[in-house]
Design goal:
Helix 2 runs antiparallel to helix 3 and helix 3 crosses helix 4. Helices cover about 75% and strands about 0% of the residues. The protein folds into two domains: about 45 residues; about 70 residues. The protein is flat, with a radius of gyration of 21 Å. The longest helix has about 40 residues.
Length: about 120
């Protein structure tokens, strides 16, 4: 993602800073509300948003919101796996063997399986 015109950098910077301010402000607000709402401290303080959703919303709405969180996590994990596999196939394989890999998708499978093994041993 690049910018088309150098004159648009100033506007883009403003939009980015507004977005960062809103998103970080909302996350701080969730923490403050969670701390005030729950009388006892949570076992894992990182789950305050999910706990608020589960307690404040109807189960159908809570299920949709929790599914949205899961979708965002899965999308991020998928992107990280793709970047890692691409990095391995483009950078390391070309340096070691001096040519392009025959099957790029095999590196994605290798990264996915090694991530699964790492997850199971942690």
């Amino acid at each position: 993602m690049g910018i088309r015109d150098a004159n648009a950098i100033k506007q883009s910077r403003r939009i980015a800073m507004i977005w960062v301010f809103l998103s970080l402000g909302a996350s701080v607000l969730v923490g403050i509300v969670g701390r005030a709402y729950f009388a006892t401290t949570l076992a894992n303080s990182e789950t305050v948003f999910m706990e608020l959703i589960a307690t404040l919303f109807h189960p159908v709405v809570a299920g949709l919101l929790l599914a949205a969180i899961l979708a965002a996590v899965m999308s991020t994990a998928d992107s990280q796996l793709l970047v890692t596999a691409s990095s391995i196939s483009e950078d390391f394989y070309k340096v070691l063997f001096r040519n392009t890999p025959p099957i790029k998708s095999c590196f994605g499978l290798v990264v996915a399986l090694s991530s699964l093994l790492l997850l199971l041993h942690i």
